[in-house]
Write a structure and sequence with these properties.
about 250 residues; 9 strands; about 35% helix; alpha/beta; 2 domains; two-stranded antiparallel ribbon; Rossmann fold
Length: about 250
């Protein structure tokens, strides 16, 4: 699985891992704030962006993919920053490469199995677009809007709508994501990772709850937490300067 990735900056290495329906570009604001002091590698996970598609889509698979990129780049030690699903990939990587990790930073995600299906309308919208022969993003948005009401969500999804050799279509593997949605929402506990770990929560987001504290403490006993006020799940896009400052302070606290 040869993932697509992009590299910016120089220095100690930080790996940025996007969430569901995303791509390397989604954490671009973070990359820009970090690249002056660090080497930043932003990956497209399998079934996303310009990376290959696959029927298998476990967190162990995705973590191994990212580690393969790190090894290809001949990097021994690194830090991880993952948002949402990418946060789970980052947490799963602790099982594969704990001795090599400098810092683990998880943006608005807990190491738990989520029970609520949050994306039914998104999948319906993606499938609606796929039913039609579409020749522009505006046309795709017309069909997407039948199921996805929020303009911001539509614009986020349309970043992965592109022209290919066979016409316009989604870069991510819609059928593969639907088939593996239970796995995406799920989680298998990882062995305790006692390295430097920070969980950053959006105050208005429901992804990290009080009842998740035990699971976090069990798997990441040294973890610290920071809440960003008046933000939701997309805290790094809503308040990029604050989130970047929190991350840099944590990275440089040694």
């Amino acid at each position: 699985m040869n993932l697509h990735y992009q590299t910016d900056g120089q220095g100690e290495t930080i790996i940025l891992i996007h969430g569901l329906f995303g791509s390397a570009d989604n954490l671009g604001l973070l990359a820009r704030s970090l690249k002056n002091q660090y080497k930043v590698i932003s990956v497209d996970l399998r079934n996303h962006g310009r990376s290959p598609h696959s029927d298998t889509f476990t967190y162990q698979d995705m973590a191994a993919d990212v580690l393969e990129v790190i090894d290809q780049c001949d990097i021994e030690r690194f830090s991880l920053i993952g948002h949402s699903m990418g946060g789970k990939v980052a947490m799963a990587l602790t099982e594969l490469a704990a001795p090599r990790l400098n810092h683990l930073i998880v943006l608005d995600m807990a190491p738990v199995h989520y029970q609520v299906h949050r994306h039914e309308n998104v999948f319906a919208g993606l499938q609606e677009v796929a039913k039609h022969t579409v020749s522009s993003r505006s046309e795709a948005e017309h069909y997407l809007a039948r199921h996805v009401q929020e303009p911001g969500v539509r614009q986020f999804l349309l970043k992965s709508f592109a022209k290919t050799d066979t016409g316009y279509g989604w870069r991510f593997n819609v059928d593969g994501l639907i088939a593996n949605y239970g796995t995406i929402m799920g989680w298998h506990d990882v062995p305790p990772f006692s390295g430097k770990t920070l969980f950053i929560k959006g105050q208005n987001s429901e992804y990290i709850q009080t009842e998740h504290r035990a699971a976090i403490a069990r798997q990441f006993p040294s973890a610290k937490a920071h809440m960003v006020a008046n933000t939701g799940h997309w805290l790094h896009a809503e308040k990029p300067d604050i989130v970047s400052r929190v991350i840099l302070n944590f990275l440089q606290a040694d």
